[in-house]
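PROTEIN DATA CARD
Card holder: Class I SAM-dependent methyltransferase
Chain length: 235
Origin: Flavobacterium flavipigmentatum
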Amino acid sequence: MKDLFGKAILDFQTNNSPEDLITATSISEEDEMSVQYLFRSYNEMPKIEQKALQLASGKVLDVGCGAGSHSLTLQNDRNLDVMAIDISEKAIATCKLRGLENTKVQNILDFEGQKFDTILLLMNGTGIFGKLANCNQYLSKLKSLLNPGGQILIDSSDIIYMFDEDEDGGKWIPSEKEYYGELEFTISYKGEKETTFDWLYLDYNTLQNAAIANGLQCELVLEGEHYDYLAKLSI
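Structure generated from the sequence above:
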């Protein structure tokens, strides 16, 4: 991976002529995404993210932290002990420049040695699972990192609305897909194109079933305005 996402984040932080990211998926056209959005304050965040940050407590792990906006809110406004991790070196460099005290370049599947009271996976937190078949691996790992009484706060969207309906109200979903929420994602930045990667959107019922299969309770905390939701998983 070229880490173009991290490059855009670091360019914005260091005022190095940042540009919009161009994103595309296997079911949607190219779309511009402002890097500035990743640097939003608490008041600029969607209600689902605000709710997750309100519910966060104890020792917190922020998985896929990006520019670190969620962690900064918890560290500076809530005075919580937060560790922010991301696979992007440049994103973590940005987090450090922004004043995050506890950061690490880390894939969650390789994380060892600490347990947490709250684990956050926000901005379509299920995305990093990549494929439906990987849910058990990720949920099992996340569960192993929880303290007794701990919680996983994760958001996603049911993207069934993106598929065409037939006359009877049924959906036309490509038959080669194992699950309609499995997408291939591409990012372009400053004329460079990132290696395509798998990205997973999970409807709530499918997440709930996966959670139960891994010995986790699943609670629907909040539904957003556009098929999105926040869920709380606990042992």
